[in-house]
Design a protein that fits this description.
four-stranded antiparallel β-sheet, Neuraminidase
Length: 377
């Protein structure tokens, strides 16, 4: 019986630990078709979705719990990005990849690029959209000012510049002009281009928030996450692990990425202020391509046999994790104190009747079992 009770206690504690890791996590999509590459800004998450037989852009407002179809063209639209009320994406309705946009407030859709070559992977911050562009026979980085409606070229090198990211007046991208992939940047205000990484191995898929640029880096012969503070040019590693960490995203001092250390792809994160790393997902299927805004992380998730979009509120996760990790400890402390009190109480208040041998209270003057008086004992 004691062994069974011990097993039940251990099982309960393990279940508490398991469920603590799931709190704060929520499904964004539950459709049986595939949903890919979420992006988030404010309360709105966008992604591209195959439920209509082609890829469309969908969105959901987390505060209103409302899902909406953003594009309804029968061709494919994919790889969305969002800032404020503006959603941008790659669109092949013209038989090449163009960049289109949509204003959530007005419901207006608009075309950004019209060149007959391919424009892919748009990113947006404030009034500027950037993308990779093949109009010159290689891939360059181009941009567009939504306010002035002016398009402009950012890179002119004859090699490949791709996968741009933008924050404020700084654009970053991966660049193979040196025979490997490096991270480069460009200041839209000063028109100055600058190199960020100089390692002989590959660095790619950059993300940026204010002065902090992060990327995946192969200098240790696997993919790790590294960063650079543009204000002082200091570089730093965020994660060094023998398995691959890829596709970083950043918001303020939180970096998230895709991590293969557990034999599948999980989402991990790190607080740059405390340098504390934490695991976000623990499902045995693959979770990939994270994006982050404030305390909300979203990603692609294969746990249901297709690709869905899931999310996690990091604040709720920390709170519920604390509560559920604390419950077994608190219960043990309370139980220990209670049992000590019981033992003390029994020791002080109970003794054996010397006449009949029964257990009785000391406060009784007459034994209720044998009727003898206790005054002489």
């Amino acid at each position: 019986m004691k062994m069974n009770a011990k097993k039940e206690k251990i099982t309960a504690i393990l279940l508490l630990f398991f469920f603590a890791g799931s709190f704060g996590e929520f499904p964004v999509t539950i459709d049986d078709s595939d949903q890919h590459m979420p992006a988030i800004d404010g309360d709105v998450i966008v992604w591209y979705d195959h439920r209509n037989g082609n890829y469309d852009i969908y969105g959901v407002n987390l505060s209103k719990k409302e899902e909406s179809l953003i594009t309804a063209n029968p061709n494919n639209q994919g790889i969305p990005a969002i800032y404020g009320n503006i959603v941008v994406w790659t669109d092949n309705r013209n038989k090449n990849g163009d960049i289109y946009g949509y204003n959530i407030s007005t419901g207006e859709e608009f075309q950004i690029t019209t060149d007959s070559s391919n424009q892919l992977l748009p990113r947006i911050h404030a009034h500027t959209v950037v993308w990779e562009d093949s109009r010159h026979g290689n891939w360059d980085i181009y941009g567009y000012n939504l306010t002035t409606k002016e398009e402009f070229q950012i890179t002119t090198d004859s090699n490949i510049q791709s996968v741009p990211a933008i924050y404020g007046n700084i654009v970053v991208w991966q660049d193979n002009r040196n025979g490997n992939w490096d991270i480069y940047g460009y200041n839209l205000t000063t028109k100055e281009e600058f190199q960020i990484t100089v390692s002989l191995r590959d660095q790619g898929i950059p993300a940026i928030y204010k002065d902090i640029v992060v990327w995946q880096d192969s200098r240790n012969r696997n993919w790790d996450i590294y960063g650079c503070d543009l204000s002082d040019k200091k570089k730093f590693h965020i994660n060094i692990e023998i398995h691959d960490q890829t596709r970083p995203a950043i918001y303020k001092d939180t970096v998230v990425w895709e991590d293969a250390r557990n034999g599948n792809s999980d989402i991990y994160g790190c607080n740059l202020s405390s340098l504390k790393e934490f695991q976000i997902t623990s499902d045995e299927s693959n979770q990939e391509r994270p994006a982050i805004y404030k305390d909300t992380v979203v990603w692609e998730d294969a746990r249901n046999g297709n690709s869905d979009i899931y999310g996690c509120n990091l604040s709720q996760r920390r709170f519920f994790s604390f509560i559920f990790y604390a419950i077994p400890i608190l219960a043990t402390v309370v139980f220990t104190v209670f049992m000590a009190w019981i033992r003390k109480h029994r020791k002080e208040s109970i003794f054996i009747c010397p006449y009949c041998g029964k257990t009785i209270k000391k406060t009784w003057n007459i034994c209720p079992y044998c009727g003898d008086g206790m005054g002489d004992t």
